[in-house]
Amino acid sequence: MIQLKTMLNCIDNSGALIVECVANLRMKRHGRVGDRIIVVVQKARPIHDHLPGRRSSGGVAAANMVRRGDIRHAVIVRTCKKTQREDGSVVKFDDNACVLIGKTGEPLGTRINGQYADLLQI
After folding, report:
1. Kind of pairing, strands 16-24 and 90-91?
2. Which tens digits make up the pLDDT trace of 46-92?
3. Cβ(19)–Cβ(10) below 8 Å
4. Which of 11, 18, 87, 100 has its CA 20 to 30 A from that of 113?
5. Long-range contacts at 61-66 (CB < 8 A, ≥ 24 apart)
6. What are phi and psi of 63, to 5 degrees?
C-alpha cells in the first residue's frame, strides 16, 4: 500500500535511487502494483561529467536523466503488502519499488533491475 510520503526504491537506470510518493493518480487512499503515482527524487546517482582518462560522449546517458528534487511520474512494480492472485497464491515482496515513466507512459530508463510483479504489463 503506497500512500503519501512513502519512500520507494527506483529499480530502473534513470539515475534515481530513492523516491518519495507525493500523489496517487488513482484518487484512492493507497496505491497498488500497476498504479501511477507522482514522486520526488530524494537520492540520485552522482553525475560524472568528466572522468579522468575517458572521453565525453557528448550525449546524455540514461543514468543522468534525473536529479535530486525532480518531480516525475512513476508506476508501482513491487509492494510489501501481500496481494492474493485469482488462483489463490499470495505474493509479497521485501520492499516497495517503482519505475520512472514520462507523462506519455514511456519508461525513462532503458533497463529494469530486479523482480517485478507478473500482473504488471510492461
Report:
1. unpaired
2. 876 555 655 555 554 545 678 999 999 999 999 999 988 889 999 89
3. yes
4. 87
5. 62/13, 62/14, 62/15, 62/108, 62/109, 62/110, 62/111, 63/13, 63/14, 63/15, 64/15, 65/14, 65/15, 65/100, 65/108, 65/109, 66/14, 66/15, 66/16, 66/41, 66/100, 66/108
6. -75, -10
Tell me how far apart the alpha carbons of residues 115 and 112 are, in angstroms, rounded to a whole number.
Answer: 8
Rounded Cα gap, residues 25 and 38, in angstroms: 7
Q: Is the pLDDT of residue 41 over 90?
A: yes
CA 57 remoteness from chain centre: 26
Mean pLDDT of 94-99: 94
Q: Which three cell numbers stand for residue 74?
A: 512513476
Statement: residue 101 has pLDDT above 80: yes
pLDDT digits 0-9 by tens, 23-35:
998 777 889 888 9
Beta strands 97-101; 16-24: pairing state: unpaired
Distance CA 68, CA 48 (A): 15
